Amino acid sequence: PPELEQTLAMLSSHRSVLGYLVLSRGHPASIIRQSGVVFEGEQGRRYASAVARIVESAQSALIEASGEENEGDDIRFMRVRTKRHELMISPDRRYLLAVLHDPATGS
Amino acid sequence: MSERRRDEIALKRQKLAELRKARAERLERKQQQSPPPAQDSYKNRDINALLEGILGSDAGGSSGIRTPDLGTPTSSAPGTPLRVPRSISGIALRRGSDAGSSTLANTASDAIVDRAATPRFAPELIDVEQELFELPQRERVMYNKEIQTATFDSSDEESPPHDTGGVGTSTEDVRREREREAALEAAREAELEAESVQLDREIAQEIRDLTEEERTSIFAAPEFLDFVEQSSKIVQRALNDNYDYIRDYSVGTETGGDDSEGKRVKRVCAFWDERYCKNRSITDLDWSPKYPELSVASYNKNPAALNEPDGIVAVWNMHLLERPEFVFHSQSDVLSVTFSPFHSNLVFGGTYSGQILLWDTRSKHLPVLKTPLSAAGHTHPVYAMQMVGTQNAHNLITSSTDGLVCSWLVDMLAQPQETLELVHAGHNKTGEVAITALDFPDNETSTFWIGTEEGNLYQANRHDRAGAKAGLNAHDVYRAHAGPVTGLHFHPADGPVDFSDLFLSCSVDWTVKLWRARGLTNTKPSTGGAPTAVPPLYSFDEADDYVYDVKWHPTHPAVFGAVDGSGKFDLWNLNIDTEVPAVRTAVSEGHALNKMRWDHKDGRRVAMGGSEGRLHVYDIGDMAIPRETEWNDLQKTVASFAGASSQEPEPLTSSLRGSVNGR
User: Fold this and answer.
1) What is the domain class of B282-421 according to CATH?
2) Record: contact B225-A14, CB cut-off 8 A
3) Which top-level group of life is the source organism from (chain B) (predicted)?
């Protein structure tokens, strides 16, 4: 659908964005959409499984740490800032959008 | 024994590698479109050879030890070899992983079959034999009467199995040996088990590639589109935030030089979207009272795209520059727009057809409420509207170019609460008053001033009051401009000195005029008798093009801004200079600026809408901050204006009519 394409194209055309991944959660996670050099092929798959695992473990850690009564607290947004890049993950109940960008190029 | 476990693990590893290889191959094949079946069959043959090898080492007769965890139903005497299978099965049944692995074996084999699409014999054999394996195995478990149940851990294996019948020492020794062996076995088992479980998990986690149909079905789901919209907005807002929060300030390679920006007007950003703003002009704009980063702009028709809606209203977010937060559609050009000051989600718009529309940011593109296109409402373009009142009792006042002023209740747009037709009796040509600008003084809800297409300004009352009738007050004639009045703004009344009877008006005759409103504070409106002409306090003539809008600054009493048709923004400060603007900035070259608004919070930012569809936001910095003396200074300035034009408004009858005739 064209709006989808347009939205995703706008995302990847931002100057500091290196690529994005749209995954579906659930076992096993599967790649719905990807773009950018970083996420091509094998490396993309590794990133995808890594991201899915990160979100799963963070979510379960959250549930574990906050005890049983705080069930409704889901992860809304995650930003993993490394020295070189920043990975932004926005999970939903069923899907997951991960964007890798380089903050240094965004002046 | 454990060899079998190791083999099993090796097989699993191989399976994993093959899954990956097979997927890569599938990708290759997709590109090349020339499946090499020979290769796959070769691989299969490899598998079969391996199987044969394992089978050969076994004493059992059945082939296909895909699931050697169940052991071989050999006819060997019950002893340690059989104990191992039992223990394995014990572990297996306990963990259930072997069931998993057996199904995995199935799926793997199926998968391999799918990919290869040639050899069919081997997998089928395997399936059948699995079943064969399980049943006899269960019977063998009967060997040790003690441990009937399957679901327990290795500690039970270590416990010496008692035979109910008493046996001699030889058997005891044998038993102890068996125990030791069992313990060792169990330890090794546990290790291998763990490894195989790990491999299973890895297999399970192998990222699947979706087939095309799955993909299209996902794309078609509306929640997927919603998800992409939402999360891409969030990510874009986060991307726009340029602050590098791991910056280390102690590493000092920063170039200093913070230039003295006190007196400069700086550009912050410009909102423009290719899809919604192309070929359209901004007709009105407003800032959100609740969220200082949101602003709304209304656009008129795009003559090049006839399928797109005629009127667009877009809500922009300062943190999201590439696209509007919300977009609302309308059937006809939207000429005026305002956020509701009492509900943070509602946006009102007045259109070219006279309809008033209400949009909600929680709903989608279309208006939530509309006024009827009938004689009850407006039938002419609505250029000006304003919300008046308090939280509990507020009305939307709208005015159209046929002189009709309606007051609406927000919930009920089906018919206006009250209508008022402003008629200028005594006008020689037509009684109709074409309203192009309307403003209420601060704290007033029933008397207001309007600007017309002829260039006149009038006061009007909504209701009958003591000493004034509802309708146009034709007795005070503010003979304002030589062309249509484009902007009218009363001074915001906050501060030690109240200037709320001062207002500014601007028009296409290149001037901005400052007036003192009669009938508000000291001066009473003249009633009855001849109409009196009210002169302006001051006229600012610096512009060299049509002046499209003028607005007082919300916090600084002596500052106001004006935008004109050549794309310039003039910032005036009356306490500094009354002849020339303090700062003149060229905002957009070659395109007129249609409207401007100061932001509500502290007035540091000003939004200006251009005729090319761009919404420019500028920051004026320190010039927005008033000192305490500003009010007194302004009082003195205004007094000097009043003194300069100290003619009493004389009753002019013939001259007024003469000038009216001349129009």
Assistant:
1) mainly beta
2) no
3) Eukaryota
